[in-house]
């Protein structure tokens, strides 16, 4: 996709409006990131209020991941049933409720309940943000717009670090956890005025409404796009979830589930959750470790912007391959640093650089491209359900890594733990090279036609452009 093609898409009023819609929907990602990251600082002060045991502390931290897996498990089918827009509004309401309960929690039990409710909203948001944007965006800029959601995840994580730092002096963990109510209200207010997904509308027989939405978000080509959507809907068997386990769906499920697991077992959330703990084992003090974590979060945001600028120009597969290859190198060097570097000889800052490098390569590859691909490769009839299944796998892998990382550090040591993540990254690279398709510049209907037809969902699938 050339720069001229992309400019042509956004030149008119419809092109500009679709950016507004996508930016508002991407607030799902900001809430996802904020509510995921805020606990890293709040937990330090929650312990002084409730005197948590290590087990209960782990339950408080991981409660959101359990909730996220549950939310993802039901969220896909729910979004197919009630529509993408109403599901986003529901997600915002659940976010608000979870944040409110955590802020006022009189007991640990209420706090855990709030974390789990918040986690359910995170599971909802991890599905519906990229799903809605991918269905409303024109093919020429779909990659960049859908990746806005992942950008906002990184912005949310970074924002949570700053909020933690701002209230760390007073130890106001209730304000930290309750701050999520603000973006939840903004998301609900903004999305209440936005349109429904045209593809979901057409599938429900609301053709004129779908046409009206396309007219607001396009500057031409509406009839041809409606024809493609119509052909796709007519090709559906109507079996819903039964289609999800059909043999022709297997390649797409393998791609989605494989990337979901690899995104986590390569170690990203081990670094994001435990960066201060990792760096405190070096010569860095607590305050320096927190500042280093802010640097890691900043690089995560910057490199996600780079990915957004590139994903519709160079494609999905090149970013995945380069990003995963860079992760392998960064993790290998990180293991060497912790194995051989002198803790008193600048090891802390050297370790920080390796972690920054690892996060940077993740942010241009597995970070945004995974969420983009799973919003593109599944058929309309089961898109929500398929994304829900894949997202459940992602959150369960996240939970396993979060719970096992401290055990790995204690059992096999920091160097071997990083090398283990590097080995998983190598397998992810081979997986990407062998089975992950290129979807750049193709309509969702053309991707589905390949999946149903003889072409298959191969890595060498050609562009429509």
Automatic annotation (TrEMBL):
Residue intervals of the Major facilitator superfamily (MFS) profile domain: 21-440
Subcellular location: Membrane
PROSITE patterns given in the database record: MFS, SUGAR_TRANSPORT_1, SUGAR_TRANSPORT_2
Membrane-topology descriptor: Multi-pass membrane protein
SUPFAM superfamilies in alphabetical order: MFS general substrate transporter (SSF103473)
Gene Ontology cellular component list: membrane
UniProt keyword list: Membrane, Transmembrane, Transmembrane helix, Transport
Organism for this UniProt entry: Halorubrum miltondacostae
Family: Belongs to the major facilitator superfamily. Sugar transporter (TC 2.A.1.1) family.
Tree of life domain: Archaea
Protease among keywords: no
InterPro entries (UniProt xref): MFS_dom (IPR020846), MFS_sugar_transport-like (IPR005828), MFS_trans_sf (IPR036259), Myo-inositol_Transporter (IPR050814), Sugar/inositol_transpt (IPR003663), Sugar_transporter_CS (IPR005829)
Lineage: Archaea, Methanobacteriati, Methanobacteriota, Stenosarchaea group, Halobacteria
Transmembrane intervals: 17-46, 52-75, 87-106, 112-133, 145-167, 173-191, 252-275, 290-311, 318-341, 347-374, 386-405, 417-436
Name of protein: Sugar porter family MFS transporter
GO biological process, one term: transmembrane transport
């Amino acid at each position: 996709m050339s720069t001229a093609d992309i400019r042509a898409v956004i030149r008119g009023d419809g092109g500009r409006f679709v950016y507004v819609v996508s930016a508002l929907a991407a607030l799902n990602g900001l809430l996802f990131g904020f509510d995921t990251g805020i606990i890293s600082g709040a937990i330090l002060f929650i312990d002084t209020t409730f005197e948590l045991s290590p087990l209960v502390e782990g339950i408080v931290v991981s409660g959101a991941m359990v909730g996220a897996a549950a939310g993802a498990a039901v969220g896909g089918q729910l979004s197919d049933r009630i529509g993408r827009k109403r599901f986003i509004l529901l997600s915002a309401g659940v976010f608000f409720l979870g944040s409110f309960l955590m802020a006022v929690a009189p007991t640990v039990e209420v706090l855990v309940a709030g974390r789990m409710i918040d986690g359910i909203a995170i599971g909802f948001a991890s599905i519906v943000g990229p799903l809605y944007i991918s269905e409303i965006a024109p093919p020429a800029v779909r990659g960049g717009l859908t990746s806005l959601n992942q950008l906002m995840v990184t912005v949310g994580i970074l924002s949570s670090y700053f909020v933690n730092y701002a209230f760390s002096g007073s130890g106001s963990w209730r304000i930290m956890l309750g701050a999520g109510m603000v973006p939840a209200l903004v998301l609900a207010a903004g999305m209440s005025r936005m349109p429904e997904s045209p593809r979901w509308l057409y599938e429900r027989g609301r053709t004129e409404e779908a046409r009206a939405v396309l007219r607001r978000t396009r500057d031409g080509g509406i009839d041809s796009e409606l024809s493609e959507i119509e052909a796709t809907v007519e090709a559906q068997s109507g079996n819903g979830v039964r289609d999800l386990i059909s043999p022709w769906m297997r390649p797409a499920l393998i791609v989605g589930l494989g990337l979901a697991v690899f995104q986590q077992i390569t170690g990203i959330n081990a670094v994001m959750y435990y960066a201060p703990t990792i760096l405190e084992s070096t010569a860095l003090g607590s305050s320096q470790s927190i500042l280093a974590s802010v640097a890691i979060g900043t690089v995560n945001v910057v490199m996600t912007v780079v990915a957004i600028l590139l994903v519709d120009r160079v494609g999905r597969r090149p970013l995945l391959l380069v990003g995963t290859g860079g992760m392998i190198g960064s993790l290998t060097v990180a293991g060497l640093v912790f194995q051989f570097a002198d803790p008193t000889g600048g090891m802390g800052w050297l370790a920080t650089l390796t972690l920054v490098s690892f996060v940077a390569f993740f942010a241009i590859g597995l970070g945004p491209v995974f969420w983009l691909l799973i919003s593109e490769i599944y058929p309309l009839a089961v898109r929500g359900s398929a994304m829900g299944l894949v997202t459940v796998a992602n959150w369960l892998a996240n939970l396993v890594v979060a719970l096992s990382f401290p055990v790995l550090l204690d059992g096999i040591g920091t160097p071997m733990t990083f090398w283990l993540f590097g080995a998983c990254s190598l397998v992810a690279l081979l997986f990407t090279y062998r089975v992950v398709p290129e979807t750049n510049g193709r309509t969702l209907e053309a991707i589905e036609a390949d999946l149903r037809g003889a072409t298959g969902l191969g890595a060498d699938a050609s562009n429509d452009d």
